Amino acid sequence: MHRCRELWAVAGAVLLVGWPGTRADNPLVPAVGMADPHIHVFDGKVWMYAGRDLSPNITHFVMPDWNVWTSDDLVTWKHVTTITPNQTYIGASATPECWAVDVAFTGITGKEYAFYFSNRGSNFGVMLASDPSLADAVDALGRPLVSEPGAGGVVTTNITGGAYDPTVLVDDDGSRYIVFGLHDSGSSYAVAQLDPTFTAFAEPLRPVVFLPRPSDGETMPSDDKSTLHKFGGVYYLSAGSMYSTATSPYGPYVFRGDANPHSAVSPDRSFGDTTQGHGRFWTWNGQWFHVWCEFVQQNNTGTPPPNQGKSYARWRDAWMTYTHYRANGELVDDWGFLDAHGAVGVGQYDATWPRIEAEWFMAGTNVTKVQTDLGTSNVSFAVRFDLPDGRSRITFPNVKGLPRTGTLTVTVAAEGGTAALEGGTANVVAVDMATHAVLATCTVASPNSGQVGAARTVSCPFKSSASTTGVALSASVRGLTLDWWSLEGS
Questions:
Q1: Residues 228-251, buried b or exposed e (16+ Cβ, 10 A)?
Q2: How crowded is residue 6: how many other Cβ atoms within 10 Å of its Cβ?
């Protein structure tokens, strides 16, 4: 049985009684009911903020608290804080519904972190804390920041069908934007800029406008769970795996499609990366990731059993994969990684894999992920080294089964990669991440005349030490584009 399935099978027996540090794959922290995860990077460290489903046997949402987890490598997660409704204006409740949250860095001394929390689908408030663990978080207002009319908010609104699921973006110029609510035929997400305190609005709320996709007229599906991020000067507003883009945080947002290109054609292999998967797109050390939650009973090897409707248990796990951007700005979650190695999860590798794609790196310096199949499937990527002589590099920590001696094979991508070799040769160098000792040097020769656009695969001797656990790759010339690499022991 698949390891994740084993964990799911015992989920009902592993209810929370004090969380130690947890080393996990996918799901990130098994059998705790992790829901609606949002990840941020503060001071170089990863912090995950999530709700919690109470039981794997309940068919409606019962979510008693919010929790903070942290990681240095996306492999080992440590639980650091639990926040309960009693610490907020919500107070005690027989049926708590601690819905989705988000966090922003404020830069205000002693109140550096703003924690926005949903009280079911009715309202949301804000707490302030001095560090990202939120251990000393205090309700800043003692009442909702925003609510439906008549529900006690500092601001009330009927723009959207419920004031919940807040997402916050601090823009490059320091402007602070918040989006929340429900998008459907009779309701819109609401957006506004926050003032410098992060506890009030700098302007009136306004509805988010969506425009259809020009190619076929399809529109952004109805949903809540909005999340907002920015890449390449473009704003991405997503709900689950569906997303739209705009040149302003206010919109209008043009529907772009599904970040998981296989969720529709292979619903039995969606891994929960669907419209139901509340989560967030985020970046760390030059790599992009997508974290989301999936309903365990659906197993996402699949869909609910026939005629089950929405009666399946409200019990979720959090998953993660690498995310890439196509040449036209479209998002692509790495479904191929999920399908082949989803149980292993990001940040871990195995030297026995037939190949390790270059775009699966955990950290990249002076590199660019590039799309390599513009004329075909439009979902393959490689990594271009933008500086020569080892000044660009990608790292792969936690490589299981590294051979002491063997062969390293590398493939330079056809799209632009071999053009860097014209008139000479280039070296792809592998070094030990910890000691920087050279493990292998593969020389890629200049292609023959007329073959500049052809991919080239070369092999070279590889030698590691007993202490080697991670590999860093670099190139001797600027512009070399690495497609994949593999190892074979001798």
A1: bbbeeeebbbbbbbbbbbbeebbb
A2: 10
Distance in angstroms (rounded) separating the CA atoms of residues 297 and 12: 11
Q: Parallel, antiparallel, or unpaired for β 399-400 and 349-350?
A: parallel
* Integer Cα distance of 211 and 233 in angstroms: 19
Strands 253-258 and 210-211: parallel
Q: How many angstroms from the chain centroid is the CA of residue 187?
A: 27
| DSSP summary character for residue 418 | G
Q: What is the pLDDT of residue 457?
A: 93
E strand spans, 343-397: 349-350, 356-357, 363-365, 367-371, 381-385, 393-396
Determine the straight-line distance between the first and last CA of the chain, rounded to whole angstroms. Answer: 31
Q: Quick: pLDDT tens for 159-196.
A: 999 999 999 999 999 999 999 999 999 999 999 999 99
Which of residues 277 and 310 earns the better pLDDT score? 277
* Site of tokens 């005690």: 92
pLDDT band at 33 (very low <50, low <70, confident <90, very high): very high
Residue type, 89: Y
